[in-house]
Specification:
8-stranded mixed beta sheet; alpha/beta; single chain; about 600 residues; about 35% helix; ATP-binding; P-loop_NTPase; Rossmann fold; globular; 6-stranded mixed beta sheet
Length: about 600
């Protein structure tokens, strides 16, 4: 009986009705999941991976789809096999949450903002297990301990918005595991998380799977996560299964062209060892691609000295400032023309605040910012507007940074009009050239943002940032939400533009493999300070600060032979960056390990 699959999906076809007729989200897909096994379903956006899991939960009907054909056989704990495709909603209510648990991609939307964490955790236990309120609360506390949430008693009384992203995701995992389901479906559960939190959550899911014997269906587009988690891999492409096999076989001997292309696009930590300068990735199908290192120059473009940014925390009856969030604390670095400095660290370490402070999108409290001889801190509003021609920003979410009501042509032309750089037909020509530059077809000029994929939208955001021919571009997690092959194309594009136009980048990211690929220099941030900074090779091949070492250890590597175990991951919880008014931290003092490679000696709390 042990070998009998918990789930057997046979010839599944799911259809969506659209204006243009019927569209198949999934065509003729079959695979099984056995007890205690992790099956990873990989593929890019639109390949049908989430459609398969939502069909199994019969949630697809609420998203406008219908199961047109196929069987979804689920082996219940009591009551034998059931075809979920034909089950009534009443039967499904008993299965959902009780026998099949699901972890959704975005924890903030998976949790109800108006109920406390405790209320949401106990709900499933009371409905499915018939527990009393006291017993359910005791069990909820135990679940929070299992997923290693600090101070679980306090967390039960808190609301989702009071928790960090990683903590919210742990609560969602605790909810999914509450009734000890036979099958756990995890839909991109770590996509939006930091590398350290991702490593902990993957290790946690692996441990829970071993302890409870739950089967796991893991949906992801991150091949490094697949290498860490999978027993078997199902590769999906455009609604079809194109390859299936044990994880070692898929990585070491892929058969299908799409699997090969997917693996070629994954930046692997350690690939740049021995290379002095960054260079674009060699992608399959791009044979005419120029691969040349990008050395940059040794001319200084940006000098940041002792930058400090704090945000007030207001409280009390008169909304007085009762404390400050020390977001950026005494940060100094330089960027040369045509080179990239990457800032890496976890959420809340201050890297985005540092990027925004340099553009004065948030006002720094102190420090000096010199951009090509211009003192940015001394500029008034009109002068700052003029100076922003030289410094532009690419944001993390292109959909939020583009106007949904404007055609793409007008959005890219907007900076040109604002600064009276061009007019009439000259604008059209320049915008068309920018579209050529970022490799978007000119037919897209009259489209709207919602008609494009994530990677295409990010290209539009890059085109708009390039419109004013800036000297410095601050890229804030610009590729973190993209599929692996799209991410590789966008990174290559940014590096080619750097080589052609001599651009300098401040590249903000939490993905260490991407940072290794694109950087000349790397700064590691922790609690608002740079704890280690230096040339890429120095920081990656000879990390000195304990936090840098922990960060390197946490990175999943796209190789099943190099899996991390939970004992490799010994992260300390990050202390609070909030300090009372009047608190003055010690200045940053650095020790030079080798020329240009500096390590913080002031106590950073790690």
């Amino acid at each position: 009986m042990l070998d009998q699959p918990i789930v057997d999906i046979r010839e599944l076809r799911v259809e969506f009705q659209t204006r243009g007729g019927t569209v198949a989200g999934v065509e003729n897909v079959s695979f099984t999941v056995k007890p205690g096994e992790t099956v990873c379903i990989v593929g890019e956006s639109g390949s049908g991976k989430s459609v398969s899991s939502l069909s199994l939960m019969r949630l697809i009907e609420f998203g406008g789809g219908e199961i047109a054909k196929g069987q979804l056989l689920f082996n219940r704990e009591k009551g034998g096999e059931i075809d979920l495709a034909k089950a009534t909603q009443d039967q499904m209510r008993k299965v959902r949450g009780n026998e099949i648990g699901m972890i959704f991609q975005e924890p903030m939307t998976a949790l109800n903002p108006v109920f406390t964490v405790g209320r949401q955790l106990t709900e499933g236990l009371r409905v499915h297990r018939g527990m009393t309120a006291a017993a359910a609360e005791k069990q909820a506390l135990e679940l929070l301990r299992e997923v290693r949430i600090p101070e679980p008693e306090r967390r039960l009384k808190q609301y989702p918005h009071e928790l960090s992203g990683g903590m919210r995701q742990r609560v969602v995992i605790a909810m999914a595991m509450a009734c000890r389901p036979r099958l756990l479906i995890a839909d991109e559960p770590t996509t939006a998380l930091d590398v350290t939190i991702q490593a902990e959550i993957l290790a946690l899911m692996d441990r829970l799977k071993r302890e409870t014997g739950t089967a796991v269906m893991f949906i992801t587009h991150d091949m490094a996560v697949v290498a860490q988690m999978a027993d078997r891999v199902v590769v999906m492409f455009r609604g079809n299964k194109v390859e299936e096999g044990p994880v070692e076989q898929i990585f070491n001997n892929p058969q299908h062209d799409y699997t090969k292309a997917l693996l070629a696009a994954v930046p692997k930590l350690g690939e740049m060892r021995g290379k002095a300068a960054p260079e674009p990735m060699r992608l399959l199908g791009a044979e005419n691609q120029r691969i040349a290192p990008i050395p940059g120059t040794d001319q200084r473009l940006l000098t940041v000295s002792n930058l400090t940014t704090r945000f007030p925390v207001r409280g009390g009856f008169f909304r007085r400032t009762v404390a400050n969030v020390h977001a950026v604390e005494d940060v100094s670095f330089t960027i040369n023309k045509g080179q990239t400095l990457s800032l890496v660290g976890e959420s809340g370490c201050g890297k985005s605040s540092a990027g925004r402070s340099i553009l004065r999108l948030v006002e720094p409290m102190g420090g000096k910012i010199d951009l090509d001889g211009v003192d940015v801190m001394a500029l008034d509003t009109n002068q700052l507007r003029e100076a922003r021609r030289d410094m532009q920003m690419i944001f993390q979410d292109p959909f939020a940074s583009l106007n949904p009501q404007m055609q793409l042509m007008d959005q890219v032309a907007e900076p040109l009009r604002n600064y009276d750089i061009a007019s009439g037909s000259e604008i059209s020509d320049r915008v068309a050239n920018l579209f050529d530059r970022v490799e978007l077809p000119r037919s897209f000029l009259r489209r709207y943002p919602h008609e494009l994929s994530g990677g295409q939208r990010q290209r539009v955001a890059i085109a708009r940032a390039l419109a004013l021919e800036p000297k410095l571009i601050v890229s804030d997690e610009a590729v973190s939400a993209l599929d692996v092959s799209v991410q590789a194309q966008v990174l290559n594009l940014m590096m080619e533009l750097q080589a052609e136009m001599g651009l300098s980048y401040l590249f903000i990211s939490h993905d260490m493999a991407v940072v290794e690929r694109v950087s000349h220099y790397v700064g590691v941030m922790y609690l608002g300070r740079i704890v280690e900074i230096g040339p890429r090779a120095g920081v990656f091949e000879n990390p000195q600060h304990p936090y840098t070492k922990a960060l390197m250890k946490a990175v999943p590597i796209a190789d099943p032979a190099r899996r991390k175990s939970e004992k490799d991951l010994n992260f300390k919880p990050i202390p609070s960056p909030i300090h009372p008014v009047g608190y003055e931290p010690a200045p940053s003092v650095y020790r030079e390990i080798e020329p240009g490679h500096l390590v913080l000696t002031t106590d950073s709390g790690y």
